[in-house]
Amino acid sequence: MFEKVAKFETCVAEFYGASFAVATDSCTHAIELALRLQSNSNAWCPKHTYLSVPMTLIKLDLNWKFVDNSWKDYYYVTDNIIDAAVLWKEHSYIKNTFMCLSFQFKKHLSLGRGGAILCDNYEDYIALKKMSYDGRLPGIPWAEQNIDTLGYHYYMTPETAQQGLDKFADAVYTEPRSWCYRDYPDLSNMEIFNAINQ
Predict the structure, then answer these.
(1) Taking a C-beta distance cutoff of 8 angstroms, is the pair 45, 66 a contact?
(2) In the chain, pLDDT over 70 holds for what percent of residues?
(3) Sequence-ordered list of residues with C-beta below 8 angstroms from that of 169, at least 6 positions apart, any chain
(4) Helix crossing, 158-172 with 3-16: angle to 10°?
């Protein structure tokens, strides 16, 4: 069953021009896994983005702040972690980064839910794959593995991957919507984030 996920990951990696893609259940969890892998203690977040990004930074107890950022298509959360949830562009992967994608229902490749992390290092790919899937590697019964990684149950299901494979060709040949910071409210004005940067 997880062969479908691997095939979907290959399609995504090839489209964006990355060496590897790790499919996840959401872009938010993709960002979280990349942050956990990098053990980042400092991060930043545009005032205009989706709620879950600053909430993830709070959840991980990172040192972070809101920034004014007139971003379009993607933005950096750290020096090498990119929120590319709204980016759909062939060969757009930025080398030596973890680019986090979204396949949520409003996105160009609309799967209802889902995400991915693009990377160019095999060791990082394996580490993220294990982290996304309860510390285990797919294709091997978990009871036969010596689990050495803390996992987070953030994997993409084979059913979602198959939906992605079914829709991929149409997504490649249709014009995506362009997103930017103006599509989001100023999160720094919301009560939940009032204590940030004060």
Answers:
(1) yes
(2) 99
(3) none
(4) 30
pTM of the model: 0.96
Q: Which helix (H) or strand (E) holds 22?
A: strand 20-24
The answer to whether the CB of 102 falls within 8 A of the CB of 26 is yes
Put residue 134 in one of left, alpha, beta given phi > 0 → left and psi -120 to 50 → alpha: left
Tell me how far apart the alpha carbons of residues 103 and 191 are, in angstroms, rounded to a whole number: 28
Amino acid at 55: M
User: Is residue 52 classed exposed, middle or buried when 0-12, 13-18 and 19+ CB atoms within 10 A define those classes?
Assistant: middle
- pLDDT for 153-188, tens place per residue? 999 999 999 999 999 999 999 999 999 999 999 999
CATH 3.40.640.10 fits 3-192, yes or no: yes
- Mean pLDDT for all residues in the chain: 95
Spans of all domains in the chain: 3-192
SS3 66: strand
Q: Looking at the chain, list the stretches that DSSP marks H as alpha helix, in order from N- to C-terminal side.
A: 3-16, 27-38, 52-59, 122-132, 158-172
Tokens of 132: 């996304």
CA distance 106 to 151: 28
Amino acid letter for position 15: F
